[in-house]
Design goal:
Helix content: 40-55%
Radius of gyration: 14 Å
Number of helices: 4
Number of strands: 8
Shape: globular
Structural class: alpha+beta
Oligomer: single chain
Strand order of the largest sheet: 1-8-3-6
Largest sheet: 4 strands, antiparallel
Distance between the termini: 34 Å
Length: about 130
């Protein structure tokens, strides 16, 4: 699944590769920004109000909410769990990639649906206890 998605991010994105050291903040919850990221190497930890949500591994994407919602606000924080290399894609390039590569759009939706299902399962487990 992720090869088309990551290839598209690299092809249609700004192709700005950014390196982060373990523990370095990539973005903060509440920040207003217009870019998403693909993980080329390493792992990124997502947190909400300082609490762990999930880990995004190489081949995964994150930060799309800020470019598709009208307020462009980050809903969570992203922190490099390990040293990692990311590629950034801004809103303009994201919309172009969705238009030019329908499979990219489908993979982005599937990626977020998979993540939603995982979080939903964790939530259901937590409220059942």
């Amino acid at each position: 699944m992720t090869s088309i998605m990551m290839n598209t991010v690299q092809t249609y994105g700004k192709t700005v590769e950014k390196n982060y050291k373990a523990g370095e903040v990539i973005f903060q919850e509440g920040a207003v920004e217009l870019s998403m990221f693909g993980v080329l190497e390493g792992e990124v930890e997502m947190t909400l109000q300082g609490k762990f949500i999930e880990t995004i591994e190489a081949g995964g994407i994150f930060g799309i909410g800020a470019i598709v919602h009208s307020d462009h606000q980050r809903a969570s924080s992203a922190i490099a769990k390990t040293d990692c290399k990311l590629v950034a894609m801004d809103r303009e390039h994201f919309l172009f990639a969705v238009q030019q590569t329908p499979m990219f759009a489908l993979e982005v939706i599937q990626n977020y649906s998979d993540r939603y299902r995982s979080l939903k399962a964790l939530y259901e487990k937590a409220i059942a206890e």
